[in-house]
Design a protein that fits this description.
By secondary structure, the chain is of the alpha+beta class. It is built from 11 helices and 4 strands, in the order H-H-H-H-H-H-H-H-H-E-E-E-H-E-H. Helix content is 67%, strand content 8%.
């Protein structure tokens, strides 16, 4: 412990952070490499085998009974879900580690205050603690997102059961929102770690803040870009059409009025037909985001999260300043 505490006065601060959190660095590297290998395997052999199996299955529909590799299809489906949710878990892992180990533990056991007495100012201490992890989180999470996007593209259009781009997990795991959320989790964990001065409390607090921000951005995303409206004549009996992220669905009456959420689950039943007749409905409408809106939605949401991260960073440094100028910390 003494070597770690006196290290800031004798070695470069980056080397000090690496030495102090070497186990976490090894685990992070192992996690990124393992997930990267899994995603490459998913995009290569697994996707190829599943695509070939689907090709044979579709041919069977025309040729009659024949053999196809059902296991390859199921294997691709299962591993895609495992890899996708593993990528989505990264922001929460970062937030938990930041709160519990990066900041919370050192504040809790007093090593942070002792480091400040070794010629390292609190502001420089916090800046150093956040800078290197932020770089590693950005590079590592960005690589996983790019590889997940590659794996999804490898199956799109080739595998009949491949997830749509608008699927919740696929939408986030393949875009920069997850990278921004991981950085937000890093700073949120640090903020809670400073305020709670408890590694366990900071772990839970960092997870809760990250989950809350993700929930908020998920509710906000559909409204960040103008939607496309698709109108389908009622006579077609197919309900609202248009593939993507639906924002509002309903019917249009003969007067041109739009009635949202007026869609029967069974369009061809007599009850639904009577219901539409009472409304004087002539067509369905669907306000939605098509695939072309994927990147605008992703980048705007990423910008919002980065702005929140910058705000949390300012709050964290101000909280540190208040903490170190109280009577308790006046000697620092």
């Amino acid at each position: 412990m003494s070597a770690a505490l006196t290290a800031p006065t004798r070695v470069h601060l980056t080397r000090w952070v690496v030495r102090l959190h070497r186990p976490a660095l090894y685990l992070w590297t192992a996690l990124i490499l393992a997930l990267a290998a899994a995603l490459l395997w998913l995009a290569g052999p697994l996707a190829d085998a599943a695509a070939e199996a689907w090709q044979r299955y579709n041919a069977c529909a025309d040729m009659g009974p024949c053999a196809y590799d059902q296991d390859a299809i199921l294997r691709y489906k299962d591993y895609y879900e495992y890899a996708t949710y593993a990528v989505l878990a990264v922001p929460f892992l970062v937030a938990a580690w930041s709160g519990a180990s990066l900041i919370g533990r050192e504040v809790e056991n007093g090593t942070a205050r002792l480091a400040w007495t070794q010629g390292l100012s609190p502001v420089r201490w916090l800046a150093t603690k956040l800078a290197l992890p932020a770089l590693l989180v950005t590079v590592g999470t960005g690589a996983l997102v790019a590889l997940h996007r590659h794996a999804w593209v490898a199956g799109d259009g080739r595998i009949d059961t491949a997830k749509s781009w608008s699927d919740f997990a696929t939408f986030y795991a393949s875009g920069p929102v997850v990278v921004a959320l991981a950085l937000t989790g890093l700073v949120a964990g640090a903020l809670i770690g400073l305020r709670r001065a408890s590694s366990f409390g900071a772990l839970g607090g960092g997870l809760c803040v990250t989950a809350f921000l993700w929930f908020g951005i998920h509710l906000l995303i559909p409204h960040l870009w103008s939607t496309v409206t698709k109108v389908t004549p009622m006579a077609h009996n197919v309900g609202p059409s248009g593939n993507g992220i639906s924002v509002t669905q309903g019917v249009i009456t003969a007067t041109g009025a739009r009635i949202a959420d007026a869609h029967c689950t069974a369009d061809t039943t007599a009850q639904c037909q009577a219901y539409y007749a009472d409304l004087d409905a002539v067509s369905w409408f669907n306000d939605y985001h098509p695939a072309a809106h994927y990147w605008p939605l992703q980048w705007i949401a990423t910008g919002i999260l980065l702005a929140v991260t910058a705000l949390l960073t300012v709050v964290t440094f101000r909280g540190l300043r208040r903490r170190t100028t109280t009577p308790e910390g006046a000697a620092v």
